[in-house]
Amino acid sequence: MGEKGIDILKLDVKKLIKMLNEALSEEWLAYYQYWIGARVMEGPMRSEIEPELLLHATQELNHAELVAARIIQLGGTPVLNPNQWTKLSRCDYDAPTDPYVEVILKQNLKGERCAIQRYQEIAEFTKGIDFTTHQMAVNIMNEELEHEQDIEDWLTDMNRLKEDFLKLRP
Asked: If you write DSSP's letter for every residue of 16-34 in order, what string do you get?
């Protein structure tokens, strides 16, 4: 973004870049959490859920690309060292030490809810001031909301399977 483009923003650009670098760190962690979780996951519905988790991972990577590009447009520098991701992120990275599908889904659900909060904050911070960042945040938040719904639906389906299975037992 040019000097005039930054100058017309009536907000704290340094604070916005900090928020975006935090979001960028969270996106990289979310990408890896989805990707590795899909790879090691075990249990019922795995074959149906795995491709969707890999799609979510790709979407998280796309979010990282958008956020990094916006940081650069604003005259900032995206986080350069992956060692900083967990320090900058308020969303936890939960290693899939228990590969059971339900555990993986709950970890990802927690991450999605954290991401929704992050992009809500960025959208509110930029609303009516920085239309480009605001629109980006709203678009990403909408995808995160879709991810949350997908995961909640899978967890509901798994619970119904458990209930049906228990009904079949004598």
From this structure: HHHHHHHHHHHHHHHHHHH
